[in-house]
What does this fold into?
Amino acid sequence: MKRIATGFFLIVTVLQVWAQPAQKPLPIIDMHLHAIPYNDQGPPPTTIGAPYRDWSALDPKQGGGMGYMNQLLKSSTMCENCLTSAPSDDALRNQTLSLMKKYNIIGVTSGPMSYVQRWQKEAPDRIIPGVLFTLGDPQLTLDSMRHYFKTGAVKVFGELCLQYQGIALSDSVVEPYLALAEEYDIPVSIHIGTGPPGVAYFGASAYRARLHSAFTAEEAMIRHPKLRVAIAHAGWPLLDDLLATLYTHPQAYVDLGVICYILPRKEFYAYLKRIMDAGFGKRVMFGSDQMVWPQAIEVGIKAIEEATFLSPAQKRDIFYNNAARFLRLKASSK
Ligand SMILES: [Zn+2]
It folds into this structure.
């Protein structure tokens, strides 16, 4: 009897251990998530390198800029590891939300307002609503933005995708919107850096390399000193411009959106390491910029986790603490 009882006890103990919910991983704030249509990056399925092996050259005879887009998003020739886009809006949302649950992620999420609201409805605790903003969008007039800021429908003004329009954050046309964000104390996320290579030839004819510079945000920050500014994509690859900007403007942060998974890993690490070594580790925030490829979130998280030059405390800052401070959320995470 005793032996049976012991055996039973052991089984019960094992069952109890199994029955316990898996421990939640430490929280992550993804500063750069998108809730967008699944065909946003061209006719699906599309592929993206995570990372790309290299940025191969294009012979302009091969279909001009469109040829490069096909090489980039429609074939695996440049990928070291290729991700395939989600096959429908529902799949994109479900796959992204289930990865957010798995990694305990809260995401600053931008897209068309109808998409952001749909995702937020599905996962109100995980979605901090942003807005994908271009100037001249009839849905996003100054009056609509005032309404969104006032009602809390938009908590982060961005991602501002002005670089694709050939516009810098400091240009005068952006002024009334920045004044509004400052009035409502809404932090700004501005795309500075990596659009798809070659995009000036296949989708955004005003896109310019010189707008990769973080200097393009400088006058806007001077004019609106109360504005919190997140430089998306960390202004890659203009590192010196970025470091000078962070040094001069202590309210500026960066996110690692897209560069954490598309860049050859060696380059991503070299870039991030310089930012850290220069002393800006308290202003680097994780961001995936998964677009239509949910698995990019996992690749991006791994890139940070596997970085041997980062201490556990620095990783926690990047994954959570810095963004929590930037967003003025309450709790921090050790
Ligand atoms: Zn961007």
User: Anything to note?
Assistant: Residues 159, 191, 232-233, 289 surround zinc ion (CB under 6 Å). The chain has a mean pLDDT of 92. The chain has 13 helices and ten strands.
